[in-house]
Amino acid sequence: MSIRSRLAMTAAVLAAAAFTSSAALAAVAPLNPAAITITPFDKLKFEGGPHDPLVYKVYGDPAKAGPYAIIIRWRAHDGSHPHLHPQDRYITVLEGTWWVSTGPKFDPASATPVKPGELVVHKANEIHYDGARDEDAVILITGMGPAPTIDKEVK
Hints:
By secondary structure, the protein is mainly beta.
C-alpha cells in the first residue's frame, strides 16, 4: 500500500472521527444504522491493563497480516522504551501532547512534543520511543501488520 493510500486511509478515519462531534449528532434525520454507525469517542471500548496503554481497534489487527488502525491512549507519565517495528506506521495525534524520541538509549528529557493534528511516521526498523508526560495523549496509528514491537533499549 502506497504512502498516498495510507494517508488517504488515515484521513478517512479522521474524517469519520470528526463526525462524532456533538454538532454531527444533532442530525436532522435519523441515519440508517445499516449504512452508518456513529460511536461517540467517550463510548469507545478501550482495552488494556493498569500499566499498559489503552487500545481501541478501529479495524484490522496489528498482530496479523493486513491493514490496521488503532487508537491508543497513553496515560499521563506513561510511555514506551526504545523499540522498533518492521513496518512503517503512520500516527496522528488526536488529543493531548505526545512525546517522541529516537535512539537505543532511553532519555525522556530529549523527547519532542507532537500536538493534535500533527502526523508522525515511524519508519520501519528505526529505533524510537514515545509516550505522555503531564496529560494523557491519544493517537491514531495506521499501518500494515504484522507489526510486532521489538525491544532495542541499551541500558
